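step=encode ok
step=design start
structure_in=
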């Protein structure tokens, strides 16, 4: 039985329904606090792994939009779990971007330095660019965000025991680029 749909009484598109739904679960003030608390560290993570400011900006926005689109799945999470969930979303978005083939680093202008001798400094950014995205993810989450293996596992979707092994390998690869002989690469 076919029924004609009256456009004036038709339901709103699902994306608009989702936009109104999060207000009941995550208030505007709570969202603002969550954003203020986590946006800088997630953006730094996205920038370090992608090596592109434009990608990091886009994925940061997409990360928080996806959080808002799934209010029921996040309603029971506490602040720390929401943080891990945001990193999980960001990690998945990075992986999707990498799989799509859009991995060309964006050339940022060199940052001015106050160091008297550039020969004695180690360029962490250059080292990160030589590593695979997963290695960058693991190193960033472990040493910048201070996450333990379990938290990294939850943020990346990897097995906790795999995180330990992969992090060990990523550290060894990073050491190769941080030694004075290889630092000039």
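sequence_out=
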């Amino acid at each position: 039985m076919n029924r004609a749909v009256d456009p004036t009484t038709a339901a709103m598109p699902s994306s608009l329904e989702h936009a109104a739904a999060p207000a009941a679960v995550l208030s505007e003030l709570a969202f603002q606090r969550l954003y203020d608390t986590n946006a800088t560290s997630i953006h730094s993570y996205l920038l370090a792994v992608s090596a592109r400011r434009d990608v990091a900006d886009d994925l940061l926005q997409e990360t928080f939009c996806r959080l808002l689109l799934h209010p029921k799945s996040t309603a029971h999470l506490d602040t720390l779990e929401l943080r891990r969930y945001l990193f999980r979303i960001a990690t998945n978005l990075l992986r999707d971007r990498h799989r799509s083939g859009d991995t060309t680093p964006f050339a940022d202008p060199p940052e001015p330095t106050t160091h008297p001798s550039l020969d004695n400094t180690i360029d962490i950014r250059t080292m990160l660019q030589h590593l695979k995205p997963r290695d960058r993810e693991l190193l960033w989450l472990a040493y910048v965000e201070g996450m333990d293996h379990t938290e990294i596992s939850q943020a990346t979707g990897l097995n906790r025991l795999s995180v330990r092994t992969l992090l060990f390998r990523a550290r060894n690869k990073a050491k190769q680029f941080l030694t004075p002989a290889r630092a000039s690469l």
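step=design ok
step=annotate ok -> The chain is about 65% helix and 0% strand.
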